[in-house]
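User: Can you predict the 3D structure for this chain?
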Amino acid sequence: MTFYGIIITLNFRYMMRAGQERNRHVVNKRQDKLVQLVRQHGFISIETMAEHFDVSTQTIRRDVDRLCQDSKLTRYHGGAGLPHGMNSLAYTNRKSRNLEQKRTIAMMVAEQISNGSSLFIDIGTTMEAVAEALIGHQRLRIITNHVRVVSIFSERTDFEILLAGGLVRNRDQAITGEDASEFLKKFKVNYAIFGIGSIDGDGSMLDYDYRDVQISKTAMAISKTRFAAADHSKFDADAMVRLGHVSEIDAFFTDTLPPKLITDALKANGVELFAPEKN
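Assistant: Here is the predicted structure, written as structure tokens:
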């Protein structure tokens, strides 16, 4: 091989090695962010992760498989969650995050519900706070897909409680799947109260798991009045699954005044805003 041939070969090998290092850095960075997202939300679907990182579902599956091998994640049907033993800790951390703000939101929601009402209550830590705020009411008729909500309400003997059937998700005791959605279609309720993963400046409401979104959409369809609730951390958050638009709800409850774009979207669509500073 000539001198110039040797130089070209060495340059080619260097470029190949540099390219591999860059690719490895990109993959490692994506996998680190993926783990952070799952820790924040407990479970994220493959489709949501692929859309979030703008890569194929095959790429995400390879990432998840690698992270499962490293015991950083656990593969579930349709997505990934935290390893066994970490789920309850993650949910406890989410429940304690912005706890006082969630209680403030819950009290405002409870003030809008009259005794004897029928209502659907969604899953999530904010919805647990809403359930606790409603304990002082009388003769409520409740449908929920959240085992923890049932536990909170069960101390009231004058409450009628219906729990949707389906797959129980151990990490948060939520009931998901088509069976739960079909169960809800049998009813009509005065109120639907649900949490959201994000509310954007264009009025979009989003969440993280398409299975949860399907149940929330069904609950909206069977209700006369629709309440969405979220603390300030959900303003323009990174949720990817579209739940709907603020034009589909009657009121939005939060712990502080949202950014102007969100406030304008609510006002333009006739949605009543409940926030401490406003009230």
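The longest helix spans residues 3-41. The two ends are 82 Å apart (CA to CA).
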